[in-house]
Structure formats: structure tokens, C-alpha cells
Specification:
The protein has 165 residues and is of the alpha+beta class. The chain has four helices and four strands; from the N terminus they run βαβαααββ. The two termini are 17 Å apart.
Length: 165
């Protein structure tokens, strides 16, 4: 499994979506380097409360990751066509072994009553229908550049990952 690394280009494209202040996946997130970019989005609206940026981002990511409880081994082995079950795409996007780049943006905007926090993350590769989300196995066993020292169990950051189907 590759180590997920920050990518400024993906973050810039995510910011373009977030600054629209319209909740929804955009259709213009692909770039020359990432022609099949994936995306997770989240919106949190509240009033009379305060949150740090770290709290907000942690909550968004934890919420996406918590979808693992709804995911089945069969789904992880082969992303099905025409899936109509509970939301699990945020989780599968985070844990895909075919993406190693991420860029995110958090935008705050206000309407008459609410403070809105809109969080957008773009990934090097989208979830692919009919493909495994990741291939299970011994940690680092498929890493051609060795294991990460900082994140044991993940591949070294020099691992080459081709972000194409």
C-alpha cells in the first residue's frame, strides 16, 4: 500500500470546487497528471459553536473512514457496478492501493443562519468499477522500494504508482 502524500495541484483543484460554496462533486477535477482524479466531499453546518481547523478536518476524515463498518470483503475485492447500498465510497477512496497523492481544501462560508465548513479532497485516482480497492496481503510485500520508515506497513514514498486504470 503506497503512502498517501500531499499534492499541491490536487489541492488547488479541490480549492476551486470548495470556493464555489455549492456542495457537490465537481466534474472538472482531472488534470494532465491525474486524468482520473477521485474526490471526497463533506459539509458541516452549525451555529453558536466554534471548532479548530484540526478538529474539523479530523471529524471529516474520521466520518469518511468510519464507512469501513459498512464495507464487505467482496466489495473490497471488486468495486461493483450499480452499487446502491450505504455510502462506502469515501472509505474506499481513502484506502485505495492505487493512489498515492491527495490535495484538500477547507472553505468557510456563511448563510443567514449557519456557519458552513466545506471540505474537499481530491485523489490521484478514482474508485474503479470492477477493480479491487486494494489487494490484501502481508504489509509491504508488494513494495518495490521497501517500507516507509515513518509509516511502517506502507510503502516508501518513492514507490511508483501509476494513477490510471
Amino acid at each position: 500500500m503506497p503512502t498517501l502524500q500531499w499534492d499541491a495541484e490536487l489541492a488547488t483543484v479541490a480549492a476551486t470546487n470548495a470556493r464555489r460554496c455549492i456542495y457537490g462533486h465537481d466534474e472538472c477535477r482531472s488534470t494532465v497528471r491525474f486524468p482520473y482524479a477521485g474526490q471526497n466531499i463533506g459539509l458541516f453546518s452549525y451555529y453558536a459553536l466554534t471548532f479548530t481547523v484540526t478538529e474539523l478536518i479530523t471529524d471529516f476524515i474520521n466520518d469518511w473512514y468510519s464507512e469501513y463498518t459498512l464495507t464487505t470483503p467482496a466489495f473490497l475485492a471488486k468495486h461493483p457496478r450499480g452499487y446502491h447500498g450505504p455510502d462506502i465510497g469515501h472509505f474506499t477512496q481513502i484506502v485505495s492501493d492505487r493512489t498515492n497523492r491527495i490535495g484538500c481544501s477547507l472553505v468557510t462560508y456563511y448563510d443567514t443562519t449557519w456557519i458552513n465548513q466545506y471540505f474537499v479532497c481530491n485523489y490521484a485516482l478514482i474508485n474503479l468499477i470492477g477493480q479491487p480497492v486494494y489487494v490484501a496481503g502481508i504489509a509491504c510485500s508488494k513494495c518495490t522500494t521497501g517500507c516507509s520508515v515513518k509509516y511502517p506497513g506502507l510503502c516508501n514514498t518513492n514507490e511508483i504508482v501509476i494513477a490510471k486504470p
